[in-house]
Design goal:
Largest sheet: 4 strands, antiparallel
Shape: elongated
Structural class: alpha+beta
Radius of gyration: 29 Å
Strand order of the largest sheet: 1-4-5-6
Number of helices: 4
Number of strands: 6
Distance between the termini: 81 Å
């Protein structure tokens, strides 16, 4: 019984020595990110702008929400808002919508006939919950509508 206790104590002390040696090793030498911070501080002190590595390259980066004027998705089924089926106020169509979320946080609906109306009961949170991942970027509004079949 006493030997088990002594063995456990000895293993614990060995683990402590190893962790202490590891800590001392890190105290001696600078870490890789410390060198990058030091270079940035030196270049900032010299009056020049710090150069941040361009990762990933610009050709591989997708535009962010701030870089686009809006997002659009297709909504094929009837649109239910506050428990009632929404119909176009102009023509009465109630399915096959294009839903737009613009950069000013407004949500617009466009029916198959081309009538557009702002819907204040829908917000960006609703759009984000119901839209899937972005699969295409279009340079113009018409290109986006063509891609979605309108």
């Amino acid at each position: 019984m006493f030997r088990r206790r002594a063995r456990a104590d000895r293993e614990f002390r060995e683990d402590q020595r190893e962790s202490l040696a590891l800590l001392q090793m890190h105290e001696r030498g600078p870490l890789p990110f410390d060198a990058v911070q030091a270079e940035a501080a030196v270049s900032a002190g010299a009056g020049s702008e710090a150069v941040v590595p361009d990762f990933p390259p610009g050709g591989l980066r997708a535009p962010s929400r701030q870089d686009v004027e809006g997002m659009m998705m297709r909504w094929m089924q009837p649109l239910v808002i506050d428990g009632e089926v929404y119909a176009c106020p102009t023509c009465g169509l109630y399915r096959d919508w294009i839903v737009f979320c613009l950069c000013d946080d407004s949500v617009w609906l466009r029916c198959r006939a081309g009538h557009q109306v702002r819907e204040p009961r829908l917000d960006v949170a609703w759009y984000n919950r119901n839209s899937g991942p972005v699969d295409h970027w279009h340079p113009t509004f018409e290109d986006g509508l063509r891609h979605l079949g309108h």
